[in-house]
Design goal:
Rossmann fold; 10 strands; ABC_transporter-like_CS; alpha/beta; six-stranded mixed sheet; binds adenosine-5'-triphosphate; single chain; nucleotide-binding; binds magnesium ion
């Protein structure tokens, strides 16, 4: 299909049904969405509107009940579960509200985990880890520490580095500032802005208008459907405030 050649991810009429016992819930009800290289998109909407469902389907963590998902032009439903895992590991980086770093491992080891299948040798892995950590404003002294020895904002920047370390086509972040105080949220959103300025494609789910206003486009979702697309107001971006 020619139309999706340039999209990093494209959703075509995506529906998602959850069935628990006899109870059916529609998480998504016909979503069409294209994300292009260099986009920085916020997804906003009330609790239960389908934001996490949408992100999980974009990131190949979950499959639609109906509709198609293309990643870099590859149709996800055509892949075996093994190939799906490979595409997910190479092309998509996830950032979560709870950071999800492994507490018994050092920061270095946390950042090394996604690189294990890459075929890089130990020296190449170290170089990649150090440069990626620096790209999120991190400090090499963090590498020997355990996650709990860092602040929340520092841990989230490590989590962003972990998402980035394989040079993915797309970063997906679900409420990445939801667990942070304002000052830490500001450093995290500033980190995303810096990465996007260097060309990284990013989609973030947020409840916070001051975070959404730092992106380049806001999609509003309600009852499983995208109901509007809004232009952010940069004067109300958290990271650009005094
Ligand atoms: N695993 C599941 N099983 C059954 N229903 C689910 C499941 N996951 C989500 N849902 C339902 O699908 C709908 C969308 O949920 P989703 O988690 O995507 O919302 P959300 O917008 O991320 O909400 P929040 O802002 O609270 O995180 C909700 O009605 C939810 O109850
Ligand atoms: Mg959610």
């Amino acid at each position: 299909m020619v139309s999706n050649v340039k999209a990093v991810v494209e959703l075509v009429d995506v529906w998602k049904m959850y069935k628990v016992g006899d109870i059916i819930t529609w998480g998504l009800r016909g979503v069409d969405l294209k994300v292009f290289k260099g986009d920085f998109i916020a997804i906003m909407g009330p609790s239960g509107s389908g934001k996490t469902t949408l992100l999980n389907i974009m990131g190949l963590l979950d499959k639609p009940t109906k509709g198609k998902v293309f990643i870099d032009g590859i149709e996800a439903s055509k892949l075996s579960s093994r190939d799906l895992a490979i595409v997910r590991n190479r092309k998509i980086g996830f950032v979560f509200q709870q950071f999800n770093l492994i507490s018994r491992l050092t920061i270095y080891e946390n950042l090394e985990l996604p690189l294990i299948p890459s075929g890089l040798n130990a020296k190449e892995r170290r170089e990649r880890i150090v440069s990626t950590l620096k790209s999120v404003g991190g400090d090499e002294a963090w590498l020997r520490k355990k996650p709990t020895q860092l602040s929340g904002g520092q841990q989230q920047r490590v989590a962003i580095a972990r998402a980035l370390v394989n040079n993915p086509s797309l970063i997906l972040a679900d409420e990445p500032t939801g667990n942070l105080d304002r000052a830490s949220a500001k450093t995290v959103i500033q980190t995303f802005m810096n990465l996007n300025a260097k060309g990284q494609t990013i989609v973030i789910v947020t409840h916070d208008p001051e975070v959404a206003n730092c992106t380049n486009k806001i999609y509003v979702i309600r009852d499983g459907k995208i109901v509007s697309v809004e232009e952010p107001d940069k004067d109300r971006c958290l990271a650009l405030r005094a």
